[in-house]
Specification:
CATH topology of the largest domain: Zincin-like
Oligomer: single chain
Structural class: alpha+beta
Number of domains: 2
Radius of gyration: 22 Å
CATH superfamily of the largest domain: Metalloproteases ("zincins"), catalytic domain
Strand content: 15-25%
Amino acid sequence: MTRRLLPSQAVGFANEYNSAAMPEALKQHVEACYQRAEQHFQRRFARPEISIKLRGQKAGVAHLTENKLRFNWVLYQANQHDFLAQTVAHEVAHMIAHQLYGLRIQPHGPEWQSIMREVFKRPATRCHHYAITRTPRTHYLYQCGCAEPMPFTGQRHQRVRRGAGYLCRRCKQKLIFSGETRQQ
């Protein structure tokens, strides 16, 4: 039985995935890209660890020094055909360029562009154009001597909870959590 997910559930579902449960089409396409590069350059390339735990606006990220590829499960689900054709090739091209030329090249420089065009026969585009739905962010409102509350991100609010302190830039008083939040 196939379980259909709502977009709001997909992010949590992606975090439950491990490499054994990764979509087979994604693994196969990464492997096909590596085989094409090996045939083109007449040499072997180390295979990366693959993860589908990337969240946010990025479709994929190549961690060059860790030899790891991370892909966005939600964007993969919504754009499977283009994701496999373009995004996977884009990230694998970063890995191949790194293994061929090292860290001193530009991320989307001529070496990477050449791999995209000549090896993968894909346009060397930097960014995807997938539709992204932004989830509202919670801001935590902090007060000082000024009339206007200061919104803190969740990350900064957690730092305060762990003992960090912040001063208002205008009145120089300590910012204190008001107990209120606002969605933005």
